[in-house]
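Whiteboard transcription, Tuesday session. T.W. wrote the structure tokens on the left side:
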């Protein structure tokens, strides 16, 4: 409940100035009314927590109207710094009269001015009813006054009097609002005033300086800090505690902490003078770790202080420190907006990946080299619930088996010759709560495949040379440009691990299957490398018909090549590639064996297969996809007897032999490089 204060003085202007001083500090905790001493409303009774009067003479006049429960303070007044500066400008030896409302106030203000160090002038108190005459005298006025002397020689107005700091402190103490003053620097709030209470001023200055430094220290701490005195009243409460507990500081400070914060073991610590360390409690639905310590000095208990932190924040901090230990950021920098392309193939792939990001299941990304498998892996992580944790990536084909094992699982000190002192965290541990990306997983040895399978099953890892299991919580994303199905059949990849990985499968389209993105990507890379060049029509056709074995990476390299050579107009001769036609002579033996198997399978329908492949190749050259209905219509037009159902069966068989790639819906079918080789082989 707000406190009520009534100000009573001689003028409305002075009352208003006092009110501004008070409300600037206590605005949210106090209601202020003001009356002039002759106001008839005073006679109706003064109902307030505190009555502030300008002088003892005023107090005697209104005393009978003040309720017994109300406290009364007679104001200690001072002047402003600007007023003091005006007085200091007065020539030395000048005699002046200081005019105020009554004898007490005038005498008190003369005393104040002398105490502020004024020694070069001679002052006399002057007030209504004074025996002295003001005629022909120099006067000092304090702002507005009902009493204006006659015929002075000169009037120096130094502005209205102000409440001294000591009176502000008295108001705070009587109304129980000292905690509001403790949260701010009083001298800074009242920098325009000067005070005669030098001891109090100095003490406040030193105390506020210390408390401000301590307050800043408490606020920058991420942990919640709550202090109670020996009675259990909350006296310290920083922003970290406010975020965790939810109470605002002004609503909880100086309240009984043992009731409000009963789950924090303040009572035990105060009663037993013993610390409680790292106790797990629940506040506002959060798991919170708290430690409470007694404050004891010279065998006397002064209170207790609690340090609280969210359990989830502790885990997050732990992973940040793990990251710093090995001096790597391990952050995913790419997002889905960084994956470029306007083709339906890449749009469909991104759409599927976005859906997969919502899940916590393992993702297996397949695709040719240069298609952007890691780009998709990082984007999935950044769209997932684990985005605030680590993204740890490793290329399984870039390291020998022993080194890959130590990187993944870590090791204890002394595990082997040359092991780092103190041991080393493995990437599984580092990726805890985050994502582990295993690139080129098809290159992983059978030995490590077996260990990886166990980790995925048990969600626990043991360091090399260690004897304890470490719980981990990771999401795994694996990528490969190899056909894991074939590897499983040949025994090169564990079947049980394959099914552990093959939960959410994402196939990245190669650049040959989305040729409509080629010039879109070229323009993007031109901007990235700050290059300018134009492309001849023949060169454009060459780019469209080129076999992009290196995919987007190859295209980016070519753009950088053109810009580096400062070619302004690109012709076919300037392109850094030469397509080589494949003939039956340079087809590897294993591929010939597979082609012969296909020919045996096709048997007497081989001509129909050749017709379908030729139609697909024609469409490929003009950057177009065709479906089974289009192929059926073309066959009918050319007099070739083949049903639409046969076309469907032929396309399915061709895909089994990796000679075509069938896209769902109306997207159509595309011939692969292997399919082109088959046509040349059959020629």
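and on the right, the sequence the group agreed on:
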């Amino acid at each position: 409940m707000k406190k009520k204060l009534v100000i009573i003085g001689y003028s409305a202007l002075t009352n208003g100035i006092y009110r501004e001083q008070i409300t600037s500090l206590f605005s949210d905790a106090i209601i202020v009314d003001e009356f002039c001493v002759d106001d008839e409303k005073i006679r109706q009774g003064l109902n307030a927590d505190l009555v502030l009067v300008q002088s003892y003479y005023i107090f005697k006049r209104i005393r009978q109207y003040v309720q017994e429960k109300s406290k009364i303070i007679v104001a200690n007044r001072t002047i402003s710094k600007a007023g003091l500066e005006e007085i200091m400008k007065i020539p030395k030896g000048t005699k002046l009269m200081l005019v105020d409302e009554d004898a007490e106030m005038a005498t008190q203000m003369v005393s104040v001015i002398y105490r502020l160090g004024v020694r070069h002038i001679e002052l006399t108190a002057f007030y209504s009813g004074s025996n002295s005459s003001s005629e022909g005298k120099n006067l000092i006025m304090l702002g507005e006054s009902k009493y204006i002397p006659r015929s002075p020689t000169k009037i120096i107005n130094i502005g209205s009097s102000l409440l001294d700091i000591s009176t502000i402190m008295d108001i705070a103490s009587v109304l129980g609002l000292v905690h509001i003053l403790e949260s701010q620097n009083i001298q800074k709030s009242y920098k325009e005033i000067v005070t005669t209470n030098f001891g109090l001023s100095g003490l406040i200055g030193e105390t506020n300086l210390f408390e401000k430094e301590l307050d800043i220290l408490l606020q920058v701490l991420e942990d919640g800090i709550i202090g109670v005195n020996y009675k259990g009243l909350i006296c310290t409460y920083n922003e970290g505690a406010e975020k965790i507990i939810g109470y605002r500081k002004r609503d909880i400070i100086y309240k009984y902490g043992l009731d409000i914060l009963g789950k924090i073991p303040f009572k035990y610590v105060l009663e037993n003078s013993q610390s409680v360390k790292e106790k797990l409690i629940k506040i506002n639905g959060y798991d919170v770790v708290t430690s409470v310590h007694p404050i004891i000095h010279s065998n006397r208990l002064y209170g207790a202080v609690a340090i609280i932190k969210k359990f989830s924040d502790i885990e997050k901090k732990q992973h940040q420190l793990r990251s710093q230990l090995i001096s790597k950021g391990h952050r995913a920098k790419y997002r889905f907006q960084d994956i470029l392309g306007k083709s339906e193939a890449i749009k469909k792939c991104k759409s599927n990946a976005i859906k997969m990001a919502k899940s916590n299941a393992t993702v297996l990304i397949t695709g040719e080299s240069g298609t952007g498998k890691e780009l998709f892996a990082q984007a999935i992580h950044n769209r997932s619930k684990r985005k605030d944790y680590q993204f740890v990536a490793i290329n399984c084909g870039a390291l020998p088996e022993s080194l890959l094992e130590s990187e993944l699982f870590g090791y204890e000190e002394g595990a082997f010759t040359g092991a780092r002192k103190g041991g080393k965290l493995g990437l599984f541990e580092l990726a805890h709560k985050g994502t582990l990306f295993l690139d080129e997983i098809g290159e992983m040895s059978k030995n490590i495949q077996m260990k990886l399978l166990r980790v995925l099953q048990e969600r626990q890892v043991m360091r090399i040379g260690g004897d304890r299991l470490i719980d981990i919580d990771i999401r795994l994303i694996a990528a490969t440009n190899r056909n894991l199905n074939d590897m499983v059949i040949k025994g090169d990849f564990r079947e049980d691990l394959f099914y552990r990985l093959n939960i959410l499968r994402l196939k990245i389209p190669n650049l040959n299957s989305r040729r409509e993105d080629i010039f879109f990507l070229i323009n993007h890379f031109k901007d990235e490398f700050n290059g300018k060049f134009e492309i001849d029509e023949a060169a454009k056709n060459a780019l469209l018909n080129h076999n992009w074995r290196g995919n987007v990476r190859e295209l980016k390299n070519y753009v950088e090549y053109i810009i580096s050579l400062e070619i302004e107009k690109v012709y076919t001769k300037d392109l850094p590639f030469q397509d080589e036609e494949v003939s039956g002579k340079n087809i590897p033996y294993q591929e010939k064996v597979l082609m012969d198997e296909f020919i045996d399978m096709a048997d007497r329908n081989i001509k129909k297969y050749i017709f379908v492949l030729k139609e697909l190749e024609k469409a490929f050259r003009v950057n177009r996809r065709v479906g089974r209905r289009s192929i059926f219509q073309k066959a009918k037009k050319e007099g070739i007897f083949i049903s639409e159902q046969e076309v469907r069966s032929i396309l399915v068989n061709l895909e089994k032999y990796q000679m075509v790639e069938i896209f769902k819906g109306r997207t159509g079918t595309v011939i692969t490089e292997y399919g082109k080789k088959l046509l040349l082989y059959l020629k």
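Someone added at the bottom: The CA atoms of residues 141 and 363 lie 85 Å apart.
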